[in-house]
């Protein structure tokens, strides 16, 4: 920490209540009133150093010996700064530090303590010490904080701008080019063991500095000071990624909602204990959003969506929320389902999630994608229509990712019974058909919605099923759809038709591939065949055909034998059954006569 000692005399001031007295032994002849404090001093030490005090003393001096009273209620730095000035005028020992030099410099200018009233006066002393302060990062931060107390004077004397420029220059500098090993400002630990570095023994182990080394230090600044610093580093050519990182760090530190019920991944140990008011948080949020870089992909979609949620909770201005929605829409392909599921705020809402907000974000993405496709088609004649985009192009990849996100989003919000049919249909129809290589996702969302809304009319069911391309269903989805009683009959018929068509195509493809492999297994050798080789090949084919005919004849004979054997077995079985029947009839004829016939025979 920078330090400069001035003066050589011992302490001659003491305080009694609201009064300061000089114990030099002489009675005071001037009283300087600053606020509620009164300084009882002597004229000569003051007027010999200050042009303003000389003027006031000359105006209020009288011959009757009364004490001169001077009031400086608007002096920069207040009574604390004037106390040090009084000691400086008396030659008492004082220390200039980064915490008091700004106030002293402004007060010295206010009192005209320049070189006309003595060499090495306070203006030159404080100005020289400020140059030392600006050479140190931590001291400059401290000096910048004190500028708020005397902001008007610090602006006029360019102290404030010099602090900002000094910090911006250091923040934009490449840490890898520094000659001395840098220690992270967050790391207060030091090792006592000397370490040899670049031929020099040092008690601190050199540690590499990351791009975020300055984030925490500047996060303690107030919003006006921080805003000026961010604008300065932006003008200094700092990368947008670093600026965005600092803004994200600052937001997490000063917005309690960023760390509450939002599942913040990285804990922030430097959170402020006092919670600012809702109005202050809203103002801070809107300022941070205005400072965010506009380059696409610089800020994570996760962070933007969290900020969007907070803006709804804090009732930020519509322009602020629209700004965030456009930023999210520009990089919607990088968002996750968990983040876009934004709950509805308020008590008069119908749906659980804010469908309208997601619709606006999606519309902005589609407008950006169409603009990109239009530019690409004008520069590349190969791309004519959006449905004919080459596979693997960035536009098609991004819109396909968004289509998957929309289908997953629809599946999550579909069970909501308050989700109206027009909203669901509009959201699903925003994504074009070519963006869905497979329609399993939209089919799943449709099925869930039809199950949760059984009161839909047949016409509405027909309309909602037109969002699904039956040709792009996978085998598993087609099997499920063919047995789905919630789908209209026309859709089921379409699914079965396309499934049968796909099966026919697959079978014909198999045969075509097999023929191609047989015919073109070795095309170079076929072209090189001679007449003799061709004759040999034809003879080989004839032999194979003859062998196949013999095998077929043998198989026919065996089949005939089997047929004859089967017939003989059938005849044998029939004869056996007839013999069994005749035997049973004879046995039945030999049975005992009925009782009536026996009685007649006995009578005769």
Could you explain how this protein is built, in words?
With 604 residues, the chain is mainly alpha-helical. It contains 25 helices and 9 strands. The chain has helices at 43-47, 51-60, 78-90, 101-110, 122-133, 137-146, 151-156, 159-172, 215-218, 223-235, 240-254, 278-291, 301-313, 318-330, 337-340, 355-379, 394-413, 421-429, 440-452, 458-465, 475-482, 489-519, 523-527, 531-589, 595-603; strands at residues 3-6, 13-16, 19-22, 30-34, 37-41, 68-71, 94-97, 195-197, 200-202. It has a 5-stranded mixed β-sheet, with helices on one face. Strands 1-7 form a two-stranded antiparallel sheet. Strand 4 (30-34) and strand 5 form a beta hairpin. Helix 8 packs across helix 10 (223-235) and helix 17 packs parallel to helix 19 (440-452). The chain starts with a strand and ends with a helix. Residues 179-193, 195-199, 261-272, 381-392 and 585-592 have low confidence and may be disordered.
Which structural traits does this protein have?
single chain, mainly alpha, 57% helix, 604 residues, 6% strand
């Amino acid at each position: 920490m920078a330090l400069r000692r001035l003066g050589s005399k011992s302490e001659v001031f003491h305080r009694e209540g609201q009064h300061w007295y000089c114990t030099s032994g002489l009675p005071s002849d001037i009283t300087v009133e600053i606020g509620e404090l009164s300084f009882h001093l002597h004229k000569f030490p003051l007027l010999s150093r200050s042009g303003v005090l000389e003027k006031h003393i000359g105006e209020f001096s009288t011959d009757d010996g009364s004490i001169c009273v001077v009031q400086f209620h608007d002096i920069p730095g207040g009574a604390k700064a004037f106390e040090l000035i009084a000691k400086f005028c008396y030659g008492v020992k004082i220390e200039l530090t980064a915490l008091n030099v700004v106030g002293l410099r402004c007060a010295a200018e206010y009192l005209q303590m320049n070189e006309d009233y003595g060499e090495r006066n306070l203006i030159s002393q404080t100005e020289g010490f400020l140059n030392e302060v600006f050479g140190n990062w931590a001291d400059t931060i401290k000096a910048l904080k004190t500028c708020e107390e005397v902001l008007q004077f610090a602006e006029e004397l360019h102290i404030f701008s010099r602090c900002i420029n000094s910090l911006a220059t250091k923040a934009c500098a490449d840490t890898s080019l520094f000659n001395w090993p840098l220690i992270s400002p967050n790391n207060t630990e030091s090792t006592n063991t000397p370490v040899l570095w670049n031929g020099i023994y040092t008690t601190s182990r050199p540690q590499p500095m990351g791009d975020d080394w300055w984030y925490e230090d500047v996060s303690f600044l107030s919003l006006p000071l921080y805003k000026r610093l961010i604008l300065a580093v932006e003008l200094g050519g700092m990368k947008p990624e670093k600026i965005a990182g600092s803004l994200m760090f600052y937001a997490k530190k000063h917005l309690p909602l960023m760390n509450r019920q939002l599942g913040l991944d990285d804990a922030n140990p430097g959170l402020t204990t006092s919670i600012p008011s809702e109005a202050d948080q809203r103002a801070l949020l809107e300022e941070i959003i205005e400072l965010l870089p506009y380059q696409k992909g610089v800020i994570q979609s996760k962070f933007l969506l969290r900020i969007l949620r907070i803006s709804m909770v804090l009732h930020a201005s519509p322009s602020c929320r629209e700004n965030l929605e456009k930023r999210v829409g520009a990089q919607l392909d990088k968002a996750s389902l968990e983040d876009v599921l934004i709950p509805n705020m308020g008590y008069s809402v119908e749906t659980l999630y804010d469908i309208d907000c997601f619709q606006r974000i999606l519309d902005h993405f589609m407008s950006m994608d169409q603009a990109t496709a239009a530019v690409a088609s004008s520069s590349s004649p190969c791309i004519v229509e959006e449905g004919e985009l080459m596979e693997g192009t960035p536009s098609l990849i991004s819109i396909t990712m968004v289509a998957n996100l929309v289908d997953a989003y629809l599946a999550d919000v579909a069970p909501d019974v308050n989700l109206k049919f027009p909203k669901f249909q509009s959201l699903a129809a925003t994504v074009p058909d070519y963006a869905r290589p497979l329609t399993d996702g939209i089919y799943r969302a449709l099925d869930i919605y039809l199950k949760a809304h059984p009161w839909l009319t047949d016409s509405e069911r027909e309309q909602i099923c037109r969002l699904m391309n039956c040709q792009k269903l996978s085998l598993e989805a087609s099997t499920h759809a063919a047995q789905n009683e919630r789908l209209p009959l026309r859709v089921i018929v379409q699914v079965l038709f396309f499934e049968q068509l796909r099966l026919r195509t697959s079978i014909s493809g198999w045969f075509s591939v097999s023929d191609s492999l047989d015919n073109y297994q070795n095309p170079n050798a076929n072209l090189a065949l001679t007449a003799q080789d061709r004759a040999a090949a034809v003879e080989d084919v004839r032999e194979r055909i003859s062998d196949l005919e013999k095998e077929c004849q043998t198989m026919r004979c065996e089949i005939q034998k089997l047929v004859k054997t089967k017939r003989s077995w059938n005849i044998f079985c029939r004869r056996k059954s007839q013999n069994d029947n005749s035997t049973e009839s004879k046995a039945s004829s030999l049975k005992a006569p009925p009782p009536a016939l026996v009685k007649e025979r006995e009578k005769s």
